[in-house]
Structures are given as C-alpha cells and as structure tokens.
Amino acid sequence: MHGPALSGWLLMVLCGATGAYCLLRARDSTARERGSARAEALMGFGMAAMAMPAALFTLPERTWAVYAAVFGAASLHAVVCARRGGHHLHHLVGSLAMVYMAVAMAPGGGHPGHGAGAAGSGGIPVITGALLIYYALYVLGSAGQLIPAPAPAGGGLTAPAWGARPELALACRLTMGIAMFAMLLTL
Fold first, then answer.
1. Is residue 49 part of a domain?
2. Taking all residues of the chain, what is their mean pLDDT, rounded to a whole number?
3. According to the model, what pLDDT value does residue 158 have?
4. How far apart are CA 11 and CA 17, in angstroms?
5. Is residue 17 situated within a structural domain?
6. What are the tens digits of pLDDT across the range 25-49?
7. Which of 57, 94, 113, 132 has its CA 20 to 30 A from that of 86?
8. What burial letters (b/e) apply to 29-43, b meaning 16+ CB within 10 Å?
9. At what angle do helices 5-27 and 31-51 cross, to 10 degrees?
C-alpha cells in the first residue's frame, strides 16, 4: 500500500482484528450469517495483509497475483450468493475492489514504475473515484445504523452472545468500509 508506514500499521492491526472477530462471529451465527461472516473475515485478513508496511515484510512480486486470484474467486462466490439476497452485493463490490487494488499495486500494475513500494498513484482514476464514492456512501449509510435502539421495558430479555451481536457485526462492516476507503485513497 502506498502512503505513510503508520497508517499501514494501523490499518493492518484494525483489519486483522476485524477479520478475527468475524471468524469468531461465524461460530455463533446461523448458517446464512456464517457465510457472510466468513466472507468478511477473508476481506479483513486480506486487507490487513495488503496494508502491511514494507518495513515489516517485503512481499514477493507474485503476491499481488495471489491476491487477485483469491479475491477473484471470492467475487465469483459473491455473484453466486447474491441471488439469495443479503449483503452479498457489497461483498461482490469489496472483492472486486480488492482485485483492482492488487492489480494496481502490483509491480508494473496501474502506471508504469508504480509498484507496491513506489510512491505515486496507481490504478485508473475513474474506477478509483467510483469506488471511493461507493465506500463513502456505504460508510455514511452504515454509521447511521449504529445508533442503539431503546432497551425494552422489563429487562427480562437476555443479551445475545457477544459474537452474535448485530451492532458489532455492523461495526465490523463499518470499520472495513472505512479501511477500504483509506486504502483506495492511497492508490
């Protein structure tokens, strides 16, 4: 990822923690929610790996092709699952954005001479701009849903397991949306 090392470290930790929580959430969820949690875990870990600062570990050149292949397969899976509705269209956009960033960040990808460790911009500005707009709208729309609903009177209901709390799942999606926006800004 282009940009300051500190932002890379912060994005790596944030996305890795989000991916780990999504894996834990997959244990306490229904079958339908489990698939979404796994897709979000893949996205979180993939974003963490992509945001890894070069000072920590220099990735081999073929890594970008692996990212593109993994997230290309995730895109195909999201297309198949999108017929069932739910959050899969967002997963499709996210997976395609990861493929786009992997190609743009690859050595020789995007613009000549702008590989993973080079300063400057990569990618196609129109596509990057469209993805930035999508993620900005997604983050703004998701942030409004985090306002908690009033607690029911009586207090007889038990809280769901911490891994199955819908507000935490939404917070993870919001976190990854913000992280994707930040990563796209660095292209």
1. yes
2. 81
3. 61
4. 10
5. yes
6. 888 777 778 888 888 999 999 999 8
7. 132
8. beeebebbbbbbbbb
9. 160
Identify whether 55 is part of a domain: yes
Buried b / exposed e along 71-85 (16+ C-beta atoms within 10 A): beebbebbeebeeee
Q: How many domains does the chain have?
A: 1
Question: Do residues 11 and 45 lie in contact, with contact meaning Cβ atoms separated by under 8 Å?
Answer: no
Compute CA distances 183 → 16, 20, 65, 117, 163, whole Å: 14, 19, 18, 14, 27
Domain containing residue 105 = 5-147+162-185
154 domain residue, yes or no: no
Residue type at 126?
V
Q: What is the mean pLDDT of residues 133-154?
A: 80
Please state, in angstroms and rounded to a whole number, the distance separating the CA atoms of residues 75 and 69.
10
